[in-house]
């Protein structure tokens, strides 16, 4: 049987929520990954170090003792984030970045930033203190077409942030377009990007042809095939600017299969297996370890992991759902389908 042994990977973009949903999802991540960057878009959001520490504690308590898993915390940038908040974050070994959600861009982003210029002093402090800025890169103007929102954010906002703060380390999260790949590729080394499994596997036809399929709905929304191809090329290029970030974003099944369905794909249950499938199909399994296990750690200036994991090429069926507190359901990406790589226990 074909096997693939890798340095243990990390997930550089993950939503785990709180309470029962956290308990359902966290061990799916912890069985594969050594570390994960934990998104702060709770309600209310995680905006300061003391909230991050109590959230980290809740995650630790929900994680099975059999795993050696470290949640890396992130603070949510608001209009009222202060320079002191940045100083405290920089001094905390638990906090690794700030996340910029343009207000209204996605799930729980209503307390996000409404005026970028107003947070420039905060960006200056982050640049000075070497704290990365993670960006949900979409404009929110109602008149801008949803499929153009990432491209226009890059043209109008990201390039301005980068010009004003040339040393600020930036991760353009979950890139979905050719333009994003091009911007990141041409930028200096302090600009990088994460790529999700769903944006590598699917284009917008998957979501919209033959009926609307809400489990493929996420933000930024799936784009056309040419963009997917650009993402595959970037992820498998061996460029250290592109690394693994699932954006696994659990929502209960009834909230996705809904007349106003939530955005987010639940991929954490098989994240490394999904990426292995993508890299295998692209004939680039030799590039998976850099993407999954090295480049993100290098960008965050953390040590690479030393433990190893092994994947086997063997078929298995994805469950139709995972139970949440015995009464609700969580539908995984590829529910009921067959995967071809499996992580050894
Ligand atoms: O699809 C998404 N879901 N995109 C995001 O940016 C947020 C996430 C969530 O928190 O559900
Ligand atoms: Zn996200």
Keywords, separated by commas or semicolons:
single chain; 345 residues; binds zinc ion; alpha/beta; three-stranded antiparallel beta sheet; binds (4S)-2,6-dioxohexahydropyrimidine-4-carboxylic acid
Can you offer a commentary on this structure?
There is one protein chain. The protein is of the alpha/beta class and 345 residues long. Helix content is 34%, strand content 18%. Strands 2-3-4-5-6-7-8-9 form an eight-stranded parallel β-sheet. The relative contact order is 0.16. Bound molecules: (4S)-2,6-dioxohexahydropyrimidine-4-carboxylic acid and zinc ion. The site of (4S)-2,6-dioxohexahydropyrimidine-4-carboxylic acid (DOR) has 11 residues, from loops.
Helix/strand/pairing category: alpha/beta
Rounded mean pLDDT is: 97
Measured as a percent range, the helix fraction is 25-40%
DSSP strand count: 13
Bound ligands, named by name, code or SMILES: (4S)-2,6-dioxohexahydropyrimidine-4-carboxylic acid, zinc ion
Characterize the biggest β-sheet: 8 strands, parallel
Structure annotation, total helices: 12
Low-confidence stretches: none
Strand order of the largest sheet: 2-3-4-5-6-7-8-9
Shape descriptor: globular
* Succession of helices and strands: EEHEHEHEHEHEHEHHHEHHHEEEE
Rounded radius of gyration (Å): 19 Å
Tell me the fraction of residues in β-strands, as a range: 15-25%
User: What is the terminal separation in angstroms?
Assistant: 16 Å
């Amino acid at each position: 049987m074909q096997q693939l042994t890798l340095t243990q990977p990390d997930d550089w973009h993950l939503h785990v929520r709180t309470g029962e949903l956290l308990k359902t999802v966290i061990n799916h991540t912890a069985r594969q990954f050594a570390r994960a960057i934990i998104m702060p878009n709770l309600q209310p959001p995680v905006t300061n170090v003391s909230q991050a520490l109590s959230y980290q504690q809740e995650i630790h308590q929900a994680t099975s003792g059999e795993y050696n898993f470290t949640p890396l915390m992130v603070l949510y940038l608001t209009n009222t984030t202060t320079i002191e908040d940045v100083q405290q974050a920089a001094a905390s070994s638990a906090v690794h970045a700030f996340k910029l959600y343009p207000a209204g861009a996605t799930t729980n982003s209503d307390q996000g930033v409404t005026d970028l210029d107003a947070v420039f002093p905060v960006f200056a402090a982050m640049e000075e203190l070497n704290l990365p800025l993670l960006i949900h890169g979409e404009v929110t103007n109602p008149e801008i077409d949803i499929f153009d929102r990432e491209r226009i954010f890059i043209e109008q906002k990201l390039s301005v942030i980068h010009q004003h703060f040339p040393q600020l380390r930036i991760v353009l999260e979950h890139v979905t377009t050719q333009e994003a790949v091009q911007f990141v590729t041409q930028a200096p080394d302090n600009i990088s990007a994460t790529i999700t499994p769903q944006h590598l596997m699917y284009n917008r036809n998957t979501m919209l042809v033959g009926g609307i399929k809400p489990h493929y709905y996420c933000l930024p929304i799936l784009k056309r095939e040419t963009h997917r191809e650009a993402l595959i090329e970037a992820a498998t290029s061996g460029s250290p600017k592109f690394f693994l970030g699932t954006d696994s974003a659990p929502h209960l099944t009834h909230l996705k299969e809904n007349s106003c369905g939530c955005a987010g794909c639940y991929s954490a249950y098989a994240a490394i297996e999904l990426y292995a499938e993508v890299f295998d199909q692209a004939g680039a399994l030799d590039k998976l370890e850099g993407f999954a296990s090295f480049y993100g750690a290098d960008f965050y200036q953390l040590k690479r992991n030393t433990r190893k994991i092994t994947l086997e090429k063997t078929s298995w069926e994805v469950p139709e759902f995972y139970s949440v507190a015995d009464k609700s359901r969580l539908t995984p990406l590829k529910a009921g389908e067959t995967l071809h790589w499996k992580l050894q226990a």
